[in-house]
Amino acid sequence: MSVQVLPAATQAKAPGKAGKGHLNQVDLVRVLTFASVIMVHVITYTNDGANVTAYGVLALLHYTRSVFFFLTGFVLVYTYRKRPLASGTFWRRRMALVGIPYVIWTAFYFGIIQQVGQPDLPVAQFLDYLWGCIYKGVGWYHLYFLLVSLQFYILFPFVLAVLKATVRHHKKILIGSAILQVGISLAETYLPAPSDPDSTLGQLWTNDGTIVFSYQFFLLAGCLAAFHYEAFQAWITSHAKLIWWGLGLSSAFALTWYGVNIAYGHAPGDATGVLQPEMLPWYAFVVLAMYLTGSRWAARQETGSRSQRIVAAASQRSFGVFLVHPAMLWVFLNKFDMWFPNHIPQGLYLTLAAYAFAVVTSLIFVEIVIRSPLAKVLIGRERIRRAPKPTPVPVAV
User: Domains of the chain: which residue ranges?
Assistant: First the structure.
């Protein structure tokens, strides 16, 4: 699959590829996003809930969900936009690569919860609670991403078919999706919860963060960007100034809104609600800015360069790091607290130390797993095998 030459008005070098159908800019965006989501979790657990500065940073870092889901839609459509999609094969492969790790890691983190919190639950209640964690995506605080991804995989063949049948109406679809996203965010943020939490609507409301429709705009935007890849790439290249200005202004608005929430008596944690409609402009411009950054980086890379190989390797391991890093963070905060004097239990020092520990130990774990037979079931990646040693060539004498 080749990338078309950009129009004369945008004579920037097109982003390079590492292989057929592979976009190098996606590798960098994925790595930066996973690095950011680790920081989100570290800041949350290493800072006091009343720390206005830390949670202000956290409010901006919540863009990670939007970028995650934009990339999910983008990569899938880019892969299948010009070739047929066999739904059965697609579902089997995706459910295996994401569904199996999802169940395994949910059970693993559920085990941590059991060990620390309620070690003596009856078996029936234990299994019921575990099933609830699996189907609600609440086994641990980061596993919602896998559950939402699985929901989108189920819908994807239908989404792709609709996109192919409505090519002339894609702008209208995107605008409609944006309006719907604002409406969903307004409802989730400002409408009162249903009176019966056990009703279907009550369950949907309670678990809004693990439902695919809560992120439909960014998934669809990624799909449409990939469907019109050449036009999207040209637009990104020629509108860099607009993107950077939008990023700056939307960040100022997001922080101002955070300050308004604080001024009205909200705790810093409550003031950083991920699904607030006021944060949508910031999320949208971060998606564009991240992709622009990745594109500019990829355009400067020579095929097979060291930086390209490092980023590609990091991207390949990023999903595994995402899955295991909360466990490493938990270990650090619960087993190595003696490293920190009592008078500085939280703050910048602890945040940086916890981040470094979580990243390094997670990478070590993934590097071991990705070279083992468990690679697919634990981190959803193909096993990396050692290259066979070359057979010595006999020398005639």
Answer: 8-379
